[in-house]
Amino acid sequence: MSGRAQVILVVDDETHQRARMRRLLRKIGYEVIGARDYAEASALYQRRHDEIDMLVIDVSLPGYYGCELAKTALTICPSVKALMISGDTGAKVCKFYGISPSDVHFLKKPFRDSDLVARVRYLLETTELGCGDADGASA
Q1: Residue 58 · residue 127 · CB < 8 Å
Q2: Residue range of the domain that includes 96
Q3: Is residue 63 part of a domain?
Q4: Which of 6, 23, 71, 83 has the most CB atoms less than 10 A away?
């Protein structure tokens, strides 16, 4: 591991929800970047994909589905972790966009803070590191 804090991009158009997730994930040691919509998140990811280890994305974003963002991110960096947060239709929407269930994970809204923490930790600690660590840092 390179010693840097793992970086998570949180994308949610609900300001309160986005702030809640950012605060919680920062509290447990992650560096967290926030975006309110597809366009902002896409621009951030294009610029910083080599340092972003995981995306936490609301499936329903204004104008686009979060699944479209996940698909774009996975195209740029196939090893990035993606956690979709959604009511009950998220998995169906992402399947429609051709995203394999093995490429993204889901957390149903509403969720407890402990559920988000457990899922994020599981994905980042039990799976391969993202693109930012693939070029030279050894595990």
Answers
A1: no
A2: 7-127
A3: yes
A4: 6
Residue 2 is assigned to a structural domain of this protein: no
Residue 83: CATH number of its domain: 3.40.50.2300
Determine the Cα–Cα distance for residues 41 and 111; give it in Å rounded to an integer: 22
27-68 confidence digits (pLDDT tens): 999 999 999 999 999 999 999 999 999 999 998 888 788 888
115 belongs to a structural domain: yes
Least Cα distance to 107 among 74, 42, 59, 52 occurs for 59
* 33: alpha, beta or left? (left if phi > 0; alpha if psi -120 to 50): beta
How confident is the model over 65-99, as pLDDT tens digits? 888 899 899 999 988 999 999 876 655 666 666 66
**Is 32 exposed, middle or buried (CB count within 10 Å of its CB: 0-12, 13-18, 19+)?**
buried
Question: Does the predicted TM-score (pTM) go above 0.90?
Answer: no
* Pairing relationship of beta strands 81-86 and 54-58 according to DSSP bridges: parallel
Is residue 70 included in any domain, yes or no?
A: yes
